[in-house]
Amino acid sequence: MNTLDQIVSADRTALVQRWQSLFDREPPAHVQVALLRRVLAWHVQDEALGREAGASKSANHLNLALRPAGARRTALLTAGTRLLREWRGQTHEVLVLPKGFEHQGKTYTSLSAVARAITGTPWSGPAFFGVRH
User: Fold this and answer.
1) Most Cβ neighbours (<10 Å): which of 45, 53, 95, 103?
2) Could you read off the pLDDT of 2-56 as tens digits, one per residue?
3) Nearest alpha-carbon partner for 41 in 64, 19, 61
């Protein structure tokens, strides 16, 4: 029985185990078995075409999509990075921490929270600081 046949005939528990071994995380909560099968089958086909897992552009997009939202926003920022943004004549400096951001001595859990503190209005933090893809 080939890998695609195994995926088609596998129960939810086996599909979740395969997902965890491929992506190093649980599948999204309440995901349907049909979607698990499609993603896993796509991954098998991607590998069969001679690409390493995660090496293709599509696989990288899939890995980004599977990350929690907060992880997606800060994936490009490593601890110790300093972000500078001028807002209304004042330069703001933000330090990227291992788990959050520091601005003017206060720690924030998201870059959007920092942008909101600076502007007083809701902003996308990555857009405000220019760190989007």
Assistant:
1) 103
2) 888 888 889 999 999 998 988 888 888 888 888 888 888 888 887 777 655 445 4
3) 19
Give the DSSP H or E segment for 82: strand 82-87
Tens digits of residue pLDDT in 85-102: 999 999 999 999 988 999
Report the pLDDT averaged over residues 108-125.
94
How far apart (Å, rounded) are the C-alpha atoms in residues 34 and 31?
Answer: 8
SS3 34: helix
8-43 burial code (b ≥16 CB/10 A, e <16): eebeeeebbebbeebbeeebeeeeeeeebbebbeeb
The 10s digit of each residue's pLDDT in 47-82 is 777 655 445 455 555 555 555 555 554 456 888 889
Quote the CA–CA distance of 63 and 100 in Å, as a whole number: 22
> Phi and psi for 100 in degrees, rounded to 5?
140, -160
